[in-house]
Amino acid sequence: MDRRAEYLKKADSLKPRLRVERVRPVSGLPAEAMMEGESLILDFGNHQVGHVTLKLGYTGSHPDAPAWLRLKFCESKKELGQSIEGYTGWISRGWVQEEQVHVDVLPREISLPRRYAFRYLRIEVLAVSMKYRLTVEDAWVDAATSADDRALSPFHGTPEEEAIDRVATRTLRNCMQDFFEDGPKRDRRLWLGDLRLQALTSYATYHGDDLVKRCLYLFAAAAGDDGQLTACLFTEPKLEGDDNWMADYALFFISTLKDYVEHTGDKDTGRELLPVAMRQLELSESYFDPDTHLVRDGSAKSLTRSEQAKGPELKADMVDQSAFFIDWNLTLNKQAAGQAVWIYCAKDALRLMEILNETDGHDALSAKIELRSRAAVEKLYDAGRGLFVSGEGRQVSWASQVWFALADVLPAEDAGRALLNVEKEPDAAIMVSPYMMHHYVDALYHVGMGDKAHEVMLSYWGGMVDMGADTFFELYNPNNPDESPYGSPIVNSYCHAWSCTPSYFLRGTAKKT
Questions:
Q1: Taking residues 425-439, what's their average pLDDT?
Q2: Residues 59-81: pLDDT tens digits?
Q3: What's the chain's Rg over C-alpha atoms?
Q4: Residues pairing with 27 in the sheet
Q5: For the chain, which residues make up each domain, given as ranges?
Q6: Under CATH, what is the fold of the domain 149-506?
Q7: Is there a contact between 259 and 195 (Cβ–Cβ < 8 Å)?
């Protein structure tokens, strides 16, 4: 029975009320009257998400021509020096928060229709007449979030830990809108991989349990006719799944549901959505070679919904490890990490079934996990080097070691040794996103290397704090802070959901063994 309409109704019933706070600049006002070619920068003191109003006036004679303004909204100070001119990246420059407005009558208040994510606002006068100068008399943002600040308990640690926690919670808070957005600047969508990490961090901070539940139902409501979950969702003008599909993200619905039921005790939701979760395991069978019991080795591209819709006609070499995201490293072979992610999520499915006292299929899934775990050790583990390898080229990567540690395929001692051994491999494929760094820290905690995990967390996320971050970034390479997979950092997101997890670790939710 198709229950998607029912799932959507439940999701809509959980839509949160946004809490709005009016915030004014901490610097930049009062400002000098400006003539053509002059500008000012307003600093709103912290990262804000909301709608902006400007109160404009003039000095001199009555304005005899419109004021023509360029407004540039920036999440980080370095964006103020970046130009959209010459941008040729593959993500639309429509995401750049830059506007031009004409103000025909002064004085006047203008309320901008778009929502912005920013701390800094540059107002540049492109044109006024010679008879008057423009004044900015006041400015404010009605900053919005669905997070309840009263639910956030104080965190006490070292000054460095407190700074990281403060930025991490701000990151999560500003991504908590009608749903858990991946980034309030870009892409403003609900992504399953981000949701899993946001939910874990929310349990330790803002306790937005109903928002997690809403997002689970949104994904269930947007499933394809075959039950397949898309990687991300649009909610406006109506709920619609994107045509971007990732195998690991679909599987993480299982883990997100399991975590939610474990945390809340809401078994009714668990039972209702269990068929959606288990369907992702059924669909995942297409990525495995039935002879080797391994994820097929292939390219690094993700499959669109239109490609997936070909069903049985889809060639086997398309439904393989190419469907996994894992990380932004475009040189990463994803066979091994994909195998480990499947094992990790299948084990979460077993745990969820046990919590719900659902026995149908439990033993068969357990046997399949054992078979594929054994195949991974026999075919992908290089015992002599103490490392997992991936693909025909037997690539060594950090991601492979991390995910097999999290999947508990080896004893913790051996998994920990692999995490240390990969450090000695100069050609190992590196981690390039806070998303993957989260899993690395999690893996270190998981195998009992808590001190090292804490050190890595402080170094990596602390590096962004040292750069002046108010919220944590979508991408951060300490060796190249301006790195971007999109062709230019001007479209990077500097408040991104998958970077919020230091608060999950710092506040004791992670098992620090």
A1: 97
A2: 999 999 999 999 999 999 999 99
A3: 25
A4: 43
A5: 19-145, 149-506
A6: Glycosyltransferase (1.50.10)
A7: no
Question: What span, in angstroms and rounded, lies between the C-alpha atoms of 501 and 509?
Answer: 10
Q: Report CA-CA distances (Å) from 124 to 68, 113, 356.
A: 9, 19, 59
Q: Quick one: which of 127, 129, 120, 81 has its CA closest to 100?
A: 127
Pick from 209, 284, 225: nearest CA to 252: 284
Structure tokens, 12:
């809509």
Q: What are 179-231's pLDDT values in tens digits?
A: 999 999 999 999 999 999 999 999 999 999 999 999 999 999 999 999 999 99
Q: Which two tokens stand for residue 381?
A: 């583990």
Phi then psi for residue 241, to 5 deg, are: -75, 140
- Is the pLDDT reported for residue 512 higher than 90? no
∠ CA 427-430-435, rounded to 5°: 170
SS3 of 104, please?
A: coil
Fold that domain 19-145 belongs to in CATH: Jelly Rolls (2.60.120)
CA distance 240 to 344: 28
Q: Name which of 82-96, 156-170, 221-235, 370-384 the model is least confident about.
A: 82-96
Per-residue pLDDT at 513 exceeds 50: no
Report d(CA 23, CA 252) in Å as an integer: 37
* Closest C-alpha among 47, 14, 17 to residue 173: 47
Q: What kind and span of H or E run contains 505?
A: helix 502-506
